[in-house]
Task: inverse folding
């Protein structure tokens, strides 16, 4: 069961790739530039070079599922939000479906469920994530959508929560915890058509993403 | 059969409203500001003031179908493209469905079918239109999607074409012809789940949008 990781060179992507490699989980890291390759090769992680704004259909051959963690991020220009976070995700869904992949794991965002409830400057980004998630749900592909809260660089605790109610309002989650959660999802092949908010918390990942 | 026109104060919206009024077709023009009201009132067109970025659910009461011709346009900032062209359209689809409206008429764009084939600077806009169209198709609402070519301010000829093959490559259409085509769609209630490219051409509108 090989997982194509789209956005492998991102902050979450790299941590996930390293964890998957340690766990012996077969992955293929999609990266944009040859200059990004050494970091992965040093760790024995297979890479494939392709551009999410170009033709990347060939990189799906031989993969069983796809993990989409690419993102221009909420702080880049909204033109890239449209081209990467929205349309890159849409095309990845289409290509995954055309290739008959078994599952699509999407990294979304907690506020994507209701962009109007997000702080004003994040709303365009959340609108893009809302639409990408909706496209995936309607695609017919089995999916899991993970919706982390506000990302931090705190150390991974491997203890998480599923809602603001559970955390008492704390809305953050470390990228390390997101990476651990993604590894869990990559391995939990039976989990389909599910959506999870993810925050730093007190419970084991396997319990929250059950 | 009352049609809610979202984006009524736009260049196409105003022409459509004037044509519909002349034809005795019941419409309700959704506009953003009271200052936009006199133009409509002088012509005896009902208006309702609401913001596509705010709560506009109340304006659907008593309407039978909706025509979405709002657009920040390809030349405004892509943050507004995300909030208006994409998420505004998505919310309008949701509200129309919740209100049980009979049909959703969407003004899209010719290149929205394949954003990567569009000129680079238009791609973010086309990605937004692609996703909005996809959301409408998957919504379960009966729909018509109209995909005009590049808009001009030439006079309306009421003669159109349905493809670049038909026009020999000419990719333009006047806003006046788009407005006439929309009036035809507003009246042609039996037309559902159809998509039409619209260009200036040689054939009557009723023949091309049949």
Result:
């Amino acid at each position: 069961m090989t997982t194509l990781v789209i956005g492998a060179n991102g902050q979450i992507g790299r941590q996930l790739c390293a964890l998957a490699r340690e766990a012996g989980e077969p992955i293929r890291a999609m990266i944009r530039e040859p200059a990004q390759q050494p970091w992965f090769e040093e760790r024995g992680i297979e890479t494939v070079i392709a551009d999410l704004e170009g033709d990347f259909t060939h990189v799906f051959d031989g993969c069983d599922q796809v993990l989409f963690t690419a993102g221009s991020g909420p702080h880049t220009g909204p033109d890239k939000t449209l081209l990467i976070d929205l349309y890159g995700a849409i095309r990845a869904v289409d290509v995954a479906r055309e290739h008959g992949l078994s599952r699509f794991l999407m990294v979304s965002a907690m506020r994507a469920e209701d962009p109007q409830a997000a702080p004003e400057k994040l709303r365009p980004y959340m609108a893009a994530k809302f639409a990408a998630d909706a496209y995936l749900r309607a695609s017919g592909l089995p999916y899991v959508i993970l919706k982390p809260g506000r990302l931090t660089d705190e150390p991974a605790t491997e203890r998480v929560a599923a809602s603001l109610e559970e955390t008492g309002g704390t809305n953050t989650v470390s990228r390390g915890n997101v990476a651990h959660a993604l590894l869990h999802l990559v391995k939990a092949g039976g989990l389909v058509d599910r959506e999870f908010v993810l925050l730093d918390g007190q419970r084991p990942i396997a319990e929250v993403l059950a």
Q: What stands out?
A: The longest strand of chain A covers residues 194-200. The two ends of chain A are 20 Å apart (CA to CA). The domain at 3-208 of chain A is CATH 3.40.50.720 (Rossmann fold).
